[in-house]
Amino acid sequence: MGKHTHHHGHSHSHAHAHQHSASNRIGWAFFLNVTFTIIEFIGGWLTNSTAIMADAVHDLGDSLAIGTAWWLNKLGEKDANQAFSYGFKRFSLLGALINSLILIVGSVWIMFEAIPRLSSPEMPQTQGMFALAIFGILVNGYAAYKLSDGDTLNERVLNWHLIEDVLGWVAVLIVSVVLMFKPWPILDPILSIAFTLFILFNVVKNLKITLRLFLQGTPDNEAREQVKDILLSPDSVDDVHHLHIWSLDGEQHVMTAHLVLNEQIAIPLMKEIKADLNTQLAPLNLAHTTIEFEFSDETCRDSKT
């Protein structure tokens, strides 16, 4: 039948070293976050503050995200094998789905706790809230500072999570100071509901993206059109069909396509077309590409008759 061209990304030893240091930084942030999340749940219970409990759920989500990222970084150091021929990148989507479900359950629990308190608010223990808020700003701020050294996408995303946490703790700090001077206990459930709605908004947004990738939807329609234009650009190419682009993890994309050539061309010209297409496709950073050449008088194997 037609000829195939394959291009695969390979990891090198320096990439492994880079990934290893990223793994260490992420692992460090994970242990810091998990320890602090446990302290937070206990602190929220002791201070009778639903706002701290809501922030604990937020931190639990971040701990899960950091833990998953750490595990995936470790997995990413393994090479593809016969069972997982594309490698292990796709596991991150599974991790994201599990994290989202845990955060949704946590958020619903906080809503059940906080909403009844709007009608009969209970005064939290303000000194404890204040102390936990200071501790929260320091711990999350330090973890964010540690991860800011990293330049992997994983680390950048996690860094934003930690910066959000710092801002959440600043809000708790402000409320605790206000409550020391004004007996307005309703501020506590209002803050916890605001935190929870913020968590749910982000979870739903990410869940939609994750499900689309999980179900092998085209990650970027604009990029698909760009690829199609590139594949049709050589004069000898009449048509492109069975063009599929899907994503392993939102970053690493896979592309397959059949190109119909308009004449019985010699092998040197085929090589030229391949080289030209490789050059044009290179800026798109596709992790895996497969291009099959066909001639107009051939029956395409993948066409349903």
Characterize the structure shown:
The protein is of the alpha+beta class and 305 residues long. It has two domains: 11-214, Alpha-lytic protease prodomain-like (Up-down Bundle); 218-295, Cation efflux protein, cytoplasmic domain (Alpha-Beta Plaits, 2-Layer Sandwich), CATH 3.30.70.1350. 65% of the residues lie in helices and 11% in strands. It is built from eight helices and four strands, in the order E-H-H-H-H-H-H-H-E-E-H-E. It has a four-stranded mixed sheet with strand order 1-4-3-2, with helices on one face. Helix 2 (50-76) packs antiparallel against helix 3. Mean pLDDT is 79; it is low at 5-15.
Oligomer status: single chain
Tell me the major beta sheet.
4 strands, mixed
Q: Kindly report how far apart the N and C termini lie.
A: 18 Å
Shape: elongated
Total helical elements:
8
Amount of beta strand: 5-15%
How many β-strands, per DSSP?
4
Q: In the CATH scheme, what's the topology name of the largest domain? A: Alpha-lytic protease prodomain-like
Average pLDDT, all residues: 79
Please identify, by name, the CATH architecture of the largest domain. Answer: Up-down Bundle
Q: State the low-pLDDT regions, or none.
A: 5-15
Question: What is the total number of structural domains?
Answer: 2
Q: What structural class do you assign from the helix and strand content?
A: alpha+beta
What is the C-alpha radius of gyration, as a whole number of Å?
Answer: 26 Å
